[in-house]
Automatic annotation (TrEMBL):
<feature type="transmembrane region" description="Helical">
    <location>
        <begin position="12"/>
        <end position="37"/>
    </location>
</feature>
<feature type="transmembrane region" description="Helical">
    <location>
        <begin position="87"/>
        <end position="107"/>
    </location>
</feature>
<dbReference type="InterPro" id="IPR006603">
    <property type="entry name" value="PQ-loop_rpt"/>
</dbReference>
<dbReference type="InterPro" id="IPR034628">
    <property type="entry name" value="MEX1/MEX1-like"/>
</dbReference>
<keyword id="KW-1133">Transmembrane helix</keyword>
<keyword id="KW-0472">Membrane</keyword>
<protein>
    <submittedName>
        <fullName>Uncharacterized protein</fullName>
    </submittedName>
</protein>
<dbReference type="GO" id="GO:0009941">
    <property type="term" value="C:chloroplast envelope"/>
</dbReference>
<dbReference type="Pfam" id="PF04193">
    <property type="entry name" value="PQ-loop"/>
</dbReference>
<keyword id="KW-0812">Transmembrane</keyword>
<dbReference type="GO" id="GO:0016020">
    <property type="term" value="C:membrane"/>
</dbReference>
<dbReference type="GO" id="GO:0005363">
    <property type="term" value="F:maltose transmembrane transporter activity"/>
</dbReference>
Amino acid sequence: MICSALRVVLQVLYNTVAPAASSLLPFFFTLAALGMILGTKLSRKVGGDASTLVRQLPGWGATLLFALSPLPQLVRNLLEPQSLEGLSVGTMLLALLGNALMVPRALLVRDVVWLSGTTWACVAGWGQLFSMFRSVSATTG
């Protein structure tokens, strides 16, 4: 489960850059990287610290998927401005506001995974808004 979550993150990034290419390269890269990371971390830690590391990996995988989800839309907005016809500025603002409201709570709880996910989602939300205002369409105004 952990490996598949991280593989999907790299596959999303790979398909954003090269959408027509179909390759297992991200899977093998993720498998090797995960093996190296777990090997070095587990060799240095004993007892409960290693189990904490293993428990946090699915959270980091889900956070990376959540944080990178606006990336394909952002690339498409910048490359094809006519694709903006179905997007709503209000929806983008509400999503940005919802993520921004969670930043103080993540700081209060001191959860690095949550903080990094909400902060990056705010940055990506501003990127989405920038791409919408940069490419003004006659249809959307």
